Amino acid sequence: MSRRDMIRMSDNEVADFLAEGFVMTCASIGSTGRTHLAPIWYVSDMPTRVSSWTYGASQKVRNLRSRPTATIQVESGVAYGELRGVSMECDVEIIDDSDLVTSIGMEVTGRFPNVLPIDPVEDDRTEFVAMQVPKRVGLRFYPTRIVSWDHRKLQGRF
After folding, report:
1. Which of 13, 83, 111, 123 could cross-link 77 (Cys pair, CB 3.0–4.6 Å)?
2. pTM (2 decimals)?
3. Is the N-terminal amide bond of 117 cis, ω within 30° of 0?
């Protein structure tokens, strides 16, 4: 078995890993042809999709409106033997419908109650999301290719 095959995560391991994470890096292509990288909070609905919300006027959204594809990555670990990650090439759907943006915003902010600029009480989160929706869009990332790695599977045999 190749080392690559040894460290590849199963579909269930990918889903579990993404459920543990909070921040993904989103790579889109700008008008100059250069890659634009941006960190973004997300929720995972794997194996189908990963969702997020962001400001509609952001550079990544401008890029995605002209070319609705992205590569997203979530990673963890410090030492080589701890490294884990998932990189996905995705087709991207931009959602402008305020009800759907609200739904995605509630999911995303529900994962981060202690880092929002509000009390982590449900009513406050609902009010916070409602105030944000006019400025935001939803993003749904549908994977077309998934690459994963879990160096812990090597058990120190590098």
Report:
1. 83
2. 0.91
3. no
